[in-house]
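Per-residue structure
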Amino acid sequence: MQIGKTKFILCLVGSFMLGICLMGSVFAFNIGGGIQGSQSKFHEIETYIDKYYLNDYENEALKDGAYKGMVSALDDPYSQYMNKDEFEQYMTSSMGEYSGVGITFSADEDGNYVVISISKDSPAEKAGVEPGDFIISVDGKTYTDIDTMASNIRGPEGTKVTIEYTRNGKAKKVTMKRANIKQESVEYKMLDDETGYIQITQFIDQTGEDFDSALKAVTKKGAKKLVLDLRDNGGGLVDESVDVADQFLDEGVVCYVEDKNGNSDTYVAKDGKTDLETVILVNGNSASASEILAGALKDNGFKIIGEKTFGKGIIQSTFELEDGSGLKLTIMQYLSPDKHVIHKKGIKPDVKVKNNEKTDTDEPLEKAKELLK
């Protein structure tokens, strides 16, 4: 069975770009009146807090904590309960514009929060934060929930936020003024008279259309070959990555998605593709939706150059609850066209090249140009 344009999110990105999924679905926990079977225990605890707890507290915050605790008990860094304000921020960010510092990050296998990419000209870039840094705290607080930390990094434009992070084992702390971040996900240029270059930094709303425009632009400039750069692309919307894959593949499978019961659905490409000879660049920060694209192209004979990808091959769906709050849950894993599992394994490049940051040369890009000669 084929699935249509449902907005599944690959929520690798614990920051600002994750998006529109199954809106209108309702998955409501009535914790305010107690979870069925646990109502008396919830109220018993609430009674003790009300009677004996020394400090003031907000009843709504207490309930939010119970909701968050329930989802946190799943021990899945990508599943989360969001109150109404958090959910509104989350959904707004999917449109590619938000107020924050321009950091995209994810949780690794050890639960560390690793920076995947930095928006150009953002406060984070100006402050010297780089991909590969590990975020320790935000305004002195540590977090076990990826989206709660992301929500606290975001904030009103002009306000300040302090982030502590480590790089090569050394801790650093920077204070940044939040700014309006307008995310541009596609950039292009000509490397020479016959070779185009398109970089996709994330998959947000309109990425597919923007890529189509970029592809037409380099073709019009005379490109007969193409370098597609997915390095430091933390993922985003599945549909957008499928739209890009569609530009390179004739009718066929882009990826399979599989639920907890083993039920499998399929994303497919339509007939018709570009004639440009193409190679793809990836690295350890290429994840989620970018791995869907890289996996689809690799299984269809395209050369992948760089380093093994991040290995985040699970899909989250977002549900809006009755009171305007939201729930994000891991609901599926995805498989490449040849049914290779990506989660915790990543995609191995056909040509392994690591960029040497101590030189001014982009070694993977140079290898890509060499292979296209």
Notes: Residues 14 and 69 are 18 Å apart (CA to CA). Residues 39-52 form the longest helix (14 residues). Confidence is low (pLDDT under 50) at residues 1-35.
